[in-house]
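REQUEST FORM: STRUCTURE PREDICTION
Request ID: SP-0412
Submitted by: Lab K.M.
Chain count: 1
Length (residues): 334
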Amino acid sequence: MRGQVSKALVAACLLAGLPVGSAQATEGGASLYVPGIHGPLAGVVPPPGFYFETDFYSYSGRLSASKQIQIGGAVLANVQVEARAAFLTPTWVTPVEILGGNLAFAMSLPLGVPRVSAGAVIAAPRLGRAFALSERDATFNVGDPIVSSLIGWHAGKFHWQTGVSVNIPSGSYQDGELSNLSFNRWIGDVYGALTYLDPAIGLDISTTIGLEINGANTATDYRSGNAFHADLAITKNLTKEFSVGVMVGHYQQVSGDGGSGASLGAYKGRVTAVGGTVGYNFEVAGTPVSALLKVMREVEVENRSRGTIGLLSIAFPLGGQAAPAAPTPAVVKR
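STATUS: Completed
RESULT:
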């Protein structure tokens, strides 16, 4: 790997470099991309070794009472959505170099409880009824695994990476239910990230852009459209351990939804979210641990719920990192 990442950043850079999560857009307001998932140090890949990250995701939002949405094959109105989930992500940064950059692999497994409340069910053949005044569903779910591969480079104060994530349908989708963490469709996300990091003044400017490519949900005959997304994070390290920052994220479908199950037509989604970050680095029994809290508020939305996103990420190395080189002893001339 060209250049080196300091020990203090070994765990921290995992907090932003890997795309994991689910958010709101396309079928059922669910997307592989979460506004703000790519935050501080988004372009930094740590030294070769094994790492682990846990992302605790919280979302609470509501769709306008005059707006309809389609979830699990049902057309709903006056919808409130909540989700509490964890994403477990082991990562292997290999010593293999491609064009001077290190190759890495990761796999993320989501599990948790999505809650969907609808004030009116307009049409729901998969729920066994055509109309109802209300419907609620909250079930513990294990979602589809997400596998990622990326390559990262370093050059002075600049760090960048490019990668791809793939959501793999696992068969855990519950047909006819409103509460699902599983997308039940293939999703590819191709992205690039760049970080400018100046340790001398504690400044981190990171940006990410990507394209999400969606397949079809065979259970509902619904094909979600493709979407563009972008993030920008500006972070200031107040001390070696403590940092604060601001973020903005944007997601926009570039093609409409389709398929025989898309009762509401193209239904293109769009969202812009703004918020902040607080980070803290510490050690446990000599192991560096990084914690990062992100809170994002969706300020502009179309064809989806508007709400607040909370994401607490904790990352640490599992081992396999090269030991720091011993200092060269000074030579004293006699």
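NOTES: The chain has one helix and 17 strands.
Reviewed by: T.R.
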